[in-house]
């Protein structure tokens, strides 16, 4: 069986690599396939982009570079992206971190910055000048007198839930408010989010279904 198969898709073409084939076998078969494909595509003035489907295998950066170099030998062909059904250990750890809730009970003092991967349930105290940044959502059960940011650095789909009326700043993604300029209600049921106009907004937990339906469904709903 040939180690590389060309398949047409609605988005263009895919190079499907045999999962058990060595990179040497792949390069030999790929060169012949590319020579034929290059001749056929010369009629077009645009470059033909090829996605490489790796299937259930991981490929080293070195092997990927060998494939890219081979394709670059043909002026009218280019690699679009490498696709795979599997992920590295590092990627899996990052996904797990982003889907876990980090329970934190600590004091963040002036000048300190704490960064969290995923969601955080905060029971501590953030002094004025202290910063808590989370890539996920922030659930505040403590005291915030500093700066909190959910969706760090630019994810506007995240939320901050809890009492934030003593905070310096609240941020979701790239949107932020200075609380002294725009006071927040003294309530542990506050929800901070970015609305459809990309403006920071404030709601209540009871309206969470309307504020963020995906998040509401993920946590099983709150009535």
From TrEMBL:
Septum formation inhibitor MinC C-terminal domain: residues covered: 104-194
Coiled-coil regions listed in the entry: 20-47
Septum site-determining protein MinC N-terminal domain mapped to chain residues: 4-82
Organism, scientific name: Apilactobacillus apinorum
Similarity annotation: Belongs to the MinC family.
Quaternary context: Interacts with MinD and FtsZ.
InterPro entries xrefs: CAP/MinC_C, MinC, MinC_C_sf, MinC_N_1, Septum_form_inhib_MinC_C
Protein name (database record): Probable septum site-determining protein MinC
Keywords in alphabetical order: Cell cycle, Cell division, Coiled coil, Septation
Family matches, as PANTHER family: SEPTUM SITE-DETERMINING PROTEIN MINC (PTHR34108:SF1)
Superkingdom in the source lineage: Bacteria
Function, as annotated: Cell division inhibitor that blocks the formation of polar Z ring septums. Rapidly oscillates between the poles of the cell to destabilize FtsZ filaments that have formed before they mature into polar Z rings. Prevents FtsZ polymerization.
């Amino acid at each position: 069986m040939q180690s590389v198969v060309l398949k047409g898709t609605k988005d263009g073409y895919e190079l499907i690599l045999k999962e058990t084939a060595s990179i040497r076998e792949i390069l030999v078969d790929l060169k012949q396939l590319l020579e034929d494909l290059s001749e056929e595509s010369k009629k077009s003035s645009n470059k033909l982009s090829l996605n490489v489907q790796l299937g259930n295998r991981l490929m080293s950066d070195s092997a990927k570079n060998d494939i890219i170099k081979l394709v670059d030998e043909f002026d009218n062909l280019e690699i679009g992206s490498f696709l795979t059904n599997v992920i590295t250990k590092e990627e899996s750890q990052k996904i797990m971190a982003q889907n876990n809730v980090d329970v934190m009970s600590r004091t963040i003092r002036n000048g300190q910055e704490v960064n969290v991967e995923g969601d955080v349930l905060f029971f501590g105290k953030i002094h004025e000048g202290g910063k808590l940044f989370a890539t996920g959502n922030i659930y505040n059960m403590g005291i915030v007198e500093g700066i909190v940011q959910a969706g760090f650095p630019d994810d506007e789909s995240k939320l901050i839930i809890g009492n934030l009326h003593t905070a310096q700043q609240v941020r979701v993604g790239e949107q932020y408010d200075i609380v002294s300029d725009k006071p927040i209600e003294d309530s542990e049921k506050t929800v901070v989010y970015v609305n459809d106009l990309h403006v920071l907004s404030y709601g209540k937990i009871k309206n969470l279904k309307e504020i963020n339906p995906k998040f509401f469904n993920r946590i099983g709903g709150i009535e």
